[in-house]
Amino acid sequence: MHRLAALTFVLALAACGSKKPPPTTPPGSGDGSGSQTASGCPAPKATTDVCAAVITYAKAADGTCCQYPSPCAVPIEGQQFSDDKCTQPMGPAH
User: How far apart (Å, rounded) are the C-alpha atoms in residues 69 and 21?
Assistant: First the structure.
């Protein structure tokens, strides 16, 4: 029984993975982190609305495809997209 507990502990540690830093977001992709990027992606819109947590993309004025954590957080008026190239429209245009 003691071996099983030790094995479970080792497996749990292995599942946590290494302590590598998270991958960086390539310039122009808009990470939706709340800071305005050099590429022109505006910060996510603050909202208290109940909204699906679905990654959503929208084009900035300069044509950059920007990523946001939900449709309600997109501060850009117009079409929202479901892909990171802003080619697959998602829902009606706003």
Answer: 20
The pair of three-digit structure tokens given for residue 84, joined into one six-digit string = 């990171």
Residue type at 85 in one-letter notation: K
- pLDDT tens digits, residue range 50-88? 999 999 999 999 999 999 999 999 999 989 999 999 999
Asked whether residue 14 is assigned to any structural domain, the reply reads: no
Ramachandran area for residue 86 (φ above 0: left; ψ -120 to 50: alpha; else beta) = left
**Count: domains in the chain:** 1
> Helices (DSSP H) in 36-79: which residue ranges?
none
pTM above the 0.85 mark? no
Distance (Å, whole) CA 57 – CA 46: 16
CA 43, CA 32: separation in Å to the nearest integer?
Answer: 6
Distance separating the N- and C-terminal Cα atoms of the chain: 60
Residue 57 CA neighbour count, 13 Å, CB half: 17
